[in-house]
Design goal:
InterPro entries: NAD(P)-bd_dom_sf, SDR, SDR_fam. It comes from Chryseolinea soli. This is SDR family oxidoreductase. Pfam families: adh_short_C2 (PF13561). With 250 residues, the protein is α/β, with parallel strands linked by helices. The chain has 8 helices and 7 strands, in the order E-H-E-H-E-H-E-H-E-H-E-H-H-H-E. It has a single domain (9-241), classed as NAD(P)-binding Rossmann-like Domain (Rossmann fold). It has helices at 18-29, 41-54, 71-83, 105-133, 152-171, 189-192, 197-207, 216-226; strands at residues 9-13, 33-38, 60-63, 88-91, 136-141, 176-183, 238-241. Helix 1 packs across helix 8 (216-226). It starts with 8 loop residues before the first strand and ends in a 9-residue tail after the last strand. Bound molecules: NADP nicotinamide-adenine-dinucleotide phosphate. Residues 14-20, 38-40, 43, 65-67, 92-96, 114, 141, 143, 153, 183, 185-186, 188-191 line the site of NADP nicotinamide-adenine-dinucleotide phosphate.
Amino acid sequence: MDLYVKGKTAVVTGASQGLGRAITKELAIEGVKVFAVARNEALLDGLKDEISAVGDVVPVTFAQDFVAPDGPEKIATMALSALGHVDMLINNAGRSRPLDVNGPEDEWSAAMTLDFDRHRQLTQQLLPHFMERKQGAILNITSTYELRAINASAVAKASIVVWSKQLAGQLGRYGITVNCLQPGLIDTANIRRVFSDDERTKFAEREIPLGDFGEPQDIANMATFLVSPRARYITGSVVVVDGGMRHYPF
Ligand SMILES: NC(=O)c1ccc[n+]([C@@H]2O[C@H](COP(=O)([O-])OP(=O)(O)OC[C@H]3O[C@@H](n4cnc5c(N)ncnc54)[C@H](OP(=O)(O)O)[C@@H]3O)[C@@H](O)[C@H]2O)c1
């Protein structure tokens, strides 16, 4: 299926590894010029090399700490200057943050900053541009909101879900879509910190109907569709890609 994304432009945060890296690569292969942001310059350079080996639309990379107070403004300014205009925004940077039930204030605040505020702020930086052009596809990579143990990142991502729904309600008239993509357990560094190989196998056999954790490519496939013109009538949605993991115990 032609996704009609060739020649379009995108900003992807958290592009150096894991889901953001796979999304950047898939968009580039489909002919999208990506402004790829993360802190690790060496990984971003490696991504550029990887993409130039398989396609001709090489991303522009930008090393920036997203948590820096002026991070969102710098990213938006540099992206507009490098790309000319932005068609798609994929808010992906983040990190899992399991905490004790009385977790410290600084960890809660760090999670809300990285996993909610900076995404909202970057989106707000680009909104006037999207509204003026009367087009734009915003996709937020979120997380489950049904964990049974405290994870401050998942709380911040739940805020993103509510905010996205509200934004979608107000931005539809400008031709702008706002959606969330909720991964289950996808094999990235973020998740390998929590599950050893052995734990992964046992957990997947027990809890995931499709039998294993997902690959970053599984998320990249859905992300690329959701920001493409093929998804023009989808907004305010949360799309789950989890191998069937989510369930009630009966
Ligand atoms: N993998 C899963 O199963 C899963 C499940 C639920 C939700 N998620 C969500 O999916 C997103 C991607 O996760 P992942 O599994 O791909 O994680 P990952 O492999 O650890 O990658 C995280 C990305 O975020 C970037 N990042 C983190 N802190 C940053 C900062 N301060 N400034 C700039 N960039 C920063 C990292 O880049 P640098 O380190 O180079 O800065 C990296 O590119 C996250 O928001 C995560 O919460 C993932």
